[in-house]
């Protein structure tokens, strides 16, 4: 994983940006979560680029299965959706389980499918102009496969993916060390997280200042 030098300058930060990190950990709060740790590190790295944000651990909420914006009484997704749609940047932070994004992460993607029918008067999806990035942790290889699945789904529902839009850490195969158990963040992961933040904020600011043309 080689960090890509970020371009741009602090002088260009004239537009305020917001971000929401959706954490797909299978462990409810207050249990420690490697996915949330890396997701929060992305949020921290976004801060110097004029981005404020919040973290939502999905498993803490009763998100009903389905592909509608609101699946009825007791569904927690509508409130989460409001926060997602208000943000300029969406970060999906997921663990790898059985070589796949977590089921919780996939449920969020399924609920985002509803945005395909959410357009403005010029035919553009409401997600156009919003940027998405990915953070992945696991104890086995598979970060590239997981990011490919997430990138396709996010782009399909209207999000734009920045260059080098993933940061990840995977431990030794068949080992038991979690990201949260490391004494220090590996330099390569920290550098890549910084690049993800710089590129994501840069692209989000460009799109917010000059959006996509009408459909």
From TrEMBL:
Pfam families on file = FMN_red
Domain named NADPH-dependent FMN reductase-like is located at: 20-164
Q: Which GO terms describe its molecular function?
A: oxidoreductase activity
Give the coiled coil ranges. Answer: none
InterPro entries, per this entry?
Answer: Flavoprotein-like_sf (IPR029039), FMN_Rdtase-like_dom (IPR005025)
Query: Which protein are we looking at?
Result: Multimeric flavodoxin WrbA
Q: Name the source organism.
A: Flavimobilis marinus
Q: Highest lineage ranks of the organism?
A: Bacteria, Bacillati, Actinomycetota, Actinomycetes, Micrococcales
